[in-house]
Amino acid sequence: MTFDYELYQRCLSGERAAQEKLYKIYAPIMYGICLRYTKDQDEAKDVLQEAFIKIFTNIDGFRGEGSFEGWMKRIVINTSLNNYYKSKKEISDKNFDDIRETDIQHDEEDNLEELRFNKTEMLEAIQKLPDGYKQIFNMYVFEKYKHREIAELLNISVNTSKSQLSKARTYLQKTLIRMEKAKKQQKR
Questions:
Q1: Are 73 and 28 a contacting pair, CB within 8 Å?
Q2: What would the pLDDT profile of 26-84 be if each residue is shown by its tens digit?
Q3: Neighbours of 93 (CB within 10 A)
Q4: Which residues have C-beta within 8 Å of that of residue 97, sequence separation ≥ 6?
Q5: Which of 34, 144, 178, 183 has the most CB atoms lying inside 10 A of its own CB?
Q6: CA pair distance 175, 179, nearest whole angstrom
Q7: Domain 5-90's class?
Q8: Helix, strand, coil shares of the chain as percentages rounded to 5?
Q9: Which CATH code for domain 96-187?
């Protein structure tokens, strides 16, 4: 997507119609990011709303370094992470290090290679990941952060980031296999 400098300038001056246009252009992309970091659609919508408020409030903070979309994505990701930590304080949740391999059901005969999943099924499986796994998986796979960057943002070690990514992939694979088995049983 090409950067619309004129639209940016109009948003910078606080023009409501320009803000609405910017929202319509970028909200679907940013909503997809929010969905990956939250439990459900309602929470994702709330995070998206909060993120766009931050975008419009701080739009003068965009310095033209890198892409405008990338700048917005960082705000959306940070807002999603802040939402997670806020809810984590309210509800005592599992810590990254509290999630063990034993939390993952292993079935040696499962084979993911012949299975195919659509975007909706994959998103549903990602949303089922435990929060610690989900954050690291999303940041590494979708946002293309390096383990060092993830470690700094989440205040964990690089090795914890690598370990949690590995566990997330295993957990995701098992979830997708269970979903596929459930689909096959429903067809019977």
A1: no
A2: 999 999 999 988 888 999 999 999 999 999 999 999 988 888 999 999 999 999 988 88
A3: 14
A4: 160
A5: 34
A6: 6
A7: mainly alpha
A8: 75, 0, 25
A9: 1.10.10.10
